[in-house]
Amino acid sequence: MKMLELCPEDRPREKMAAKGAEALSNAELLAILLRTGSGGHNAVETAQMLLRLSGGRLSALAQMSTDRMRSIGGIGQSKAITIAAALELGKRFCCEVENTEKTSITSPEMIYRMMLKEIRGLPHEECWVLYLNRANYVIGRERMSKGGLDATIVDIKMIVRNALDKLASGVILTHNHPSGNPMPGTTDINTTGQLKRALSTFGISLVDHIILCDDRFYSFSDESMTIV
Q1: Kind and range of the H or E element at 78?
Q2: CB 190 within 8 A of CB 93
Q3: What is the pLDDT of residues 56-71, one digit of tens each?
Q4: Residue 125's closest CA among 147, 141, 106, 109?
Q5: Are 155 and 184 in contact (CB under 8 A)?
Q6: Which of 59, 72, 91, 102 could anchor a disulfide with 121, C-beta 3.0 to 4.6 Å?
């Protein structure tokens, strides 16, 4: 069915204008980005096919390549790029930390909630570092590296240099395990010890190393793991 054949209240643009974006389904919001359908399918039906391709998960869609999106009839390069750009904007919006600088970090779960927006659904490992001042406020956050399925690089010299540049008093190291198992391996433990020693040389504390998964995390601090 063509969009013009739908009742006005069922057309995504008109529905959003009348009721607001929160009243629209994911497929309807995507349809606004797609603008038109193709091959006998309207924009909403095309969006529904795209969502099925991602298992119904926006997090999976955000990781999908534009080439993969283009496997859906009616989605060309321009539409695929528009969707990818919109999802990236949404991700960046969620990850803004304008409020975290005013909040003292008091638990590993706070870091987990903060970083979950960055790592949820990733098929590869990433290493992120948070820099804290003396009051445990976040004064900086950056992705240090992207790796493969079961490893990523932790550049200890770079972390120390950046901590000094930011006049940080503490550092929290985080990385994700795409496998879903947050337990640290031997490399994780050894790297944590190396970073702790390097930072302590300059009077900077390694506050924690948190291994993140989509639905759980492991905190070296919480587990009282002794790092030497």
Answers
A1: helix 77-95
A2: no
A3: 999 899 989 999 999 9
A4: 147
A5: no
A6: 59
